[in-house]
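Query structure, 329 tokens:
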């Protein structure tokens, strides 16, 4: 078995973590991933009330006795407010969840050190998803337990520094003493092996988990990810200071056209609204919403069960590490 600081920290079999995904990282998928030996993710933004969020955490615990992460994204949003973020943090501390993935603004700057300290006092492990060395150094300084080094390849909202995984992971590993997890371009055992050789203690992936039997998304979406390639994503919303990577489709072309015309957030927000995405995941309307997936879709070739995916990732990673070591004479 591959043992790292991440497997030891959480007591898990595989150094693999599911990343936050709006509307998809719900109790069933979260528990399935944790039960299979990795770290599942429950995405806080799926829930608008405290009761809904707390009940979701408890539902995960009914489905698994294994650790899992909660994803909290602190970015400008029409639906999710600062009060929501404060509620998510408070509930996570009260429920003593295993860990939190913070994306966007760091907790200390967005919500104050008291919220970060409340989580630390509750034994919650804190990981900040960053795209630069400077942000990683800050996270370590204020007390985070680990770093997600998110390369430009990732789906969602990579930092506009536009640094790739191959460069970013070792740069951050060399700059902090806390464990680093590689994000961006991860989908199989070969990329897991590569991340470990770059100095990471684990990997985080999201897009690959969409094309699993346990993910509650329309089969047309899963098949679309299989049919597409690594060049079938593009960057949007750069003009708004909120760049994101999404699958190329009709609505993404419209967003890019609006940006080229100099249209502002009022014109673009309705095209990328969360409800559009939720509807697309459910009804399979591939062209009607921004599907925020990464370049790793080039490595997605089949729909599999979560357990089979993780077992194969681990075995393939070992095989690639052994193959690389055989070159040493």
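Result returned for the query:
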């Amino acid at each position: 078995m591959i043992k790292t600081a991440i497997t030891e920290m959480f007591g898990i079999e595989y150094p693999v973590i599911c990343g936050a995904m709006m509307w998809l990282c719900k109790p069933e998928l979260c528990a399935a991933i944790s039960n299979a030996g990795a770290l599942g993710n429950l995405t806080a933004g799926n829930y608008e009330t405290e009761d809904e969020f707390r009940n979701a955490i408890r539902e995960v615990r009914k489905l698994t006795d294994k650790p899992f992460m909660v994803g909290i994204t602190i970015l400008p949003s029409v639906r999710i407010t600062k009060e929501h973020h404060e509620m998510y943090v408070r509930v996570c501390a009260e429920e003593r969840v295993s860990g939190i993935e913070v994306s966007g603004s760091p907790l200390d700057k967005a919500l104050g050190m008291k919220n970060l300290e409340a989580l630390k006092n509750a034994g919650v492990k804190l990981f900040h998803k960053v795209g630069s060395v400077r942000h990683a150094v800050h996270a370590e300084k204020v007390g985070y337990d680990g770093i997600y080094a998110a390369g430009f390849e990732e789906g969602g909202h990579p930092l506009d520094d536009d640094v790739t995984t191959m460069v970013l992971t070792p740069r951050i590993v060399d700059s902090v003493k806390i464990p680093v997890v590689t994000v961006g371009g991860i989908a199989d055992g070969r990329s897991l092996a590569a991340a470990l050789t770059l100095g990471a203690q684990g990997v985080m992936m999201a897009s690959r988990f969409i094309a699993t039997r346990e993910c509650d998304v329309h089969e047309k979406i899963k098949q679309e990810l299989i049919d597409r390639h690594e060049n079938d994503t593009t960057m949007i919303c750069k003009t708004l200071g909120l760049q994101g990577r999404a699958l190329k489709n009709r609505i993404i072309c419209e967003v890019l056209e609006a940006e080229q015309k100099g249209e502002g957030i009022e014109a673009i927000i309705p095209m990328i609204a969360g409800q559009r995405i939720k509807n697309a995941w459910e009804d399979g309307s591939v062209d009607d919403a921004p599907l925020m997936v990464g370049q790793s879709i080039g490595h997605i070739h089949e729909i599999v069960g979560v357990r089979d995916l993780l077992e194969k990732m681990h075995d393939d990673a070992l095989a690639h590490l052994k193959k690389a070591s055989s070159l040493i004479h």
